[in-house]
Amino acid sequence: MSTAHAVAAAVSFTWLGMVIAISFIEAPLKFRAPGVSLQIGLGIGRLVFRALNTVEAVLAVVLLILLVADPPSPTAIAAVCVVVVVLAAQLLVVRPRLTRRSDLVLAGSAAPHEADQPTRRSRVHYSYVGLELVKIAALVISGAAVLAGA
After folding, report:
1. Is residue 23 packed enough to be buried (19+ CB in 10 Å), middle (13-18) or exposed (0-12)?
2. What's the angle, vertex CA 33, arms to CA 51 and CA 115, rounded to 5?
C-alpha cells in the first residue's frame, strides 16, 4: 500500500468518525441537556456544523489531491466522488435552506406552512440526515476499498 493510499484511508475514516460523532451523537443530544433551549441549541448547532463543514471541505480537497496523485481502485474513486457530491449538495443546497429556517425559528416565527409547529423538523432537515447517511456509507466504502486495494 502506498503512502497516499494509507493517508486516503485515514482521512476517510477520520471524516467518518467526525460525521457520526457530530451529526448522530452531538446534534441530537445537545437538545436534551438541562437548560438548553431550542434557540441555544440551534445557535450551537449552527456553529458546530459550520466548523464541521469547513473541516469536511478541507478533507474533501485532501482526498481529491490524493486521488490525482496516486489513483486507487475504481471503487474507491467512485465512493470518494459520491462523498464530494453529497457534501457539495449539503453545502450549496440544503444548508442554506436550514439556515433560513433556523433564522425564522430564532426570530420567533416559523415558515408559514409550519406556523402551527415551529419546532417540528422540516423536510429539509430530513434530507440533510439522509445525505449524511449516504456520506457515511460512501466514506466506509472509500476507506475500505483503499485499504483492500479493491
Report:
1. buried
2. 80
Query: DSSP H helical segments within the chain, as ranges?
Result: 3-19, 27-30, 38-69, 74-89, 95-106, 123-148
- Tell me which amino acid residue 15 is: W
90: left (phi over 0), alpha (psi -120 to 50) or beta: alpha
Name which residue leads in pLDDT, 116 or 28. Answer: 28
pLDDT higher than 60, residue 43: yes
What is the SS3 assignment for 25? helix
> What's at 85, amino acid-wise?
V
Task: Find the helix or strand (DSSP H, E) in which 91 lies.
Answer: none
Q: Which three cell numbers stand for residue 13?
A: 475514516
Interval 17-29 mean pLDDT = 93
Contact call for residues 85 and 111 (beta carbons, < 8 A): no
pLDDT tens digits along 58-101: 999 999 999 999 999 999 999 999 999 999 999 999 999 988 88
How far, in Å, CA of 148 to CA of 150, rounded?
A: 5
